[in-house]
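Our consortium's second objective concerns turning raw sequence data into structural hypotheses that experimental partners can test. To show how far this objective has progressed, the report includes one record in full. It was chosen at random from the queue rather than selected for favorable results. The single chain below, 138 residues long, was entered without modification.
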Amino acid sequence: MPVFGSRDWYGNLACNFMYVQGISDFDDNSSVRLTQEDAEQRLSIALRIGKDKTPKYLFYDQIVSIEIKKKHGTRNRDFSISYHPANNPDDVKILLFEIVDASLHWRKFIGALKSKIPQSPEPEQLDSQPEPEVSQYL
């Protein structure tokens, strides 16, 4: 794997961002690595410093939308993910990250992630499935 590549050791798309808000046990303004773990159909969010913290996971089918907004007066952008929490699928929460200079290949990463967001099924196709009750799942 190249030092500045867009994939992890397993070939999964990955990108570095600055964490802003949305995960209670992550410190604001921490550097995080988001990895698209396609085999598990989930997004992994791990701190880059303080590796003793357990990564958080967000299944692709929990994601509602992804939005990018340019920050006024700067080159940086805000990157937000709206999702349904595993313990309350009727609610919508937001994870907020900042795209910074260390966010190499972010367009490729976000484009691929957007393509993995499931489209809303027709009402007759809805099937309730129990969500895992593990604290590391958002």
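The partners drew two points from this record. Helices lie at 106-115. The radius of gyration is 15 Å. Both points have been shared with the crystallography group to help prioritize constructs.
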